[in-house]
Write a structure and sequence with these properties.
Layout (H helix, E strand, L loop, with lengths): L4 H8 L2 H14 L3 H12 L5 E6 L5 H6 L4 E8 L2 H13 L6 E5 L2 H4 L6 E7 L8 H9 L2 E10 L3 H16 L11 H9 L4 E7 L3 E7 L1
Parallel strand pairs: 1-2, 1-4, 2-3, 4-5
Antiparallel strand pairs: 5-7, 6-7
Helix pairs in contact: 2-5, 7-9
Length: 212
């Protein structure tokens, strides 16, 4: 992202949005594509795994996986409001000593992070202009698997994203949503030695699992 990544994200994704997402999680549980990510992680047969969740929002993925599969997690997010919400929920669940929180553009800090068993990106790549840099940096941190959810390349998703970005321009908000080419994302990830093992499609989202 641009140099002002965290500033842009903080302005777009504030405390009210984080509170709404946390309430929705408490009421309804993980969304459909997040449940698919969780199921894929659990299908790997890991025990006491390490997790890196990029753009983890209110922390749904590690809240769920710390209950039965993951030993420690790293949560990197450019929104301070979402990190604060995730920290509060992590403490409430008794997991505060098992999660490291980092407020940053992931690509700025990736090289300094340890390798982990699983890296997840749930609806993150569509918020980032340089998908190749993001995905190659993410793949470089995983020993076993990379799992990501991203928008499908369909006409109705394309129209929806164009409408969202039009409204963003009217609001004079520099944050944009991107519909990156699935083939280009796949090619970028494969250059790191990962191969796609499964693909699940929803109406708007696709969830892909890559393994070494």
């Amino acid at each position: 992202m641009p140099r002002s990544c965290c500033e842009i994200t903080d302005r777009t994704f504030g405390a009210a949005d984080a509170d709404d997402d946390l309430r929705d999680y408490h009421k309804h549980g993980p969304s459909a594509q997040t449940r698919a990510i969780l199921n894929l992680v659990r299908s790997l047969g890991l025990h006491d795994a390490t997790l890196l969740d990029i753009g983890g929002g209110v922390g749904v993925i590690h809240h769920e996986l710390l209950q039965d599969l993951v030993l420690t997690a790293i949560h990197v997010d450019a929104s301070s409001a979402y990190l604060d919400a995730a920290k509060g929920e992590t403490a409430r669940l008794g997991h505060a000593d098992r999660v490291e929180f980092i407020h940053a553009d992931f690509t700025d800090v990736a090289s300094g992070l340890p390798e982990v068993d699983v890296v997840t990106l749930d609806r993150v790549v569509c918020c980032y202009p340089d998908f190749q840099g993001l995905l190659m940096a993410a793949a470089g941190r995983c020993r076993r698997a990379l799992i990501l959810a991203y928008p499908r390349e369909t006409w109705y998703v394309r129209i929806a994203i164009q409408a969202i970005n039009f409204l963003q321009r009217l609001r004079r908000d520099s944050f944009r949503v991107f519909l990156h080419p699935v083939g280009g994302m796949d090619a970028a990830i494969r250059t790191t030695g990962l191969q796609r093992a499964s693909l699940k499609r929803f109406f708007v989202w696709e969830v892909a699992l890559y393994e070494r």
